[in-house]
Amino acid sequence: MNAKDTVSDISATVRLEAIKHILKQQFKDQRTRIGDDTVRLVGEVVQLLIVEAAARSCNQALLAGLSVVEMEHVERVLPKLLLDF
After folding, report:
1. C-alpha span between 33 and 15 (Å, rounded)
2. How far from the centroid of its chain's Cα atoms is residue 48's Cα?
3. What are the structural domains of the chain?
């Protein structure tokens, strides 16, 4: 990702089946059901986190004078992002 991309250029696609699978793994009772609306809502939250992480990582790269986002930029923003969440 180029650090000069704007937030509006960043998009994330999250497979709802993956979200549902991850959520199901957290339940102690396998009979617990997850509604489609719940899966979509969690998917939206995950998408927002991905976009926010990408935007913050781009800003980190720009502050470092780079035009390419590296993994270290993502690693720098994750703790604060999780606290903000």
Report:
1. 18
2. 6
3. 3-84 (1.10.20.10)
Beta partners for residue 68, in sequence order: 2
Closest CA to 76 of 85, 65, 64, 67: 64
Residue 74 pLDDT class (50, 70, 90 cuts)? very high
Task: Render pLDDT for 21-50 as a digit per residue (tens, 0 to 9).
Answer: 999 999 999 899 999 999 999 999 998 999
d(CA 29, CA 27): 5
Distance CA(83)–CA(29), nearest Å, equals: 30
Please give the mean pLDDT across all residues of the chain.
86
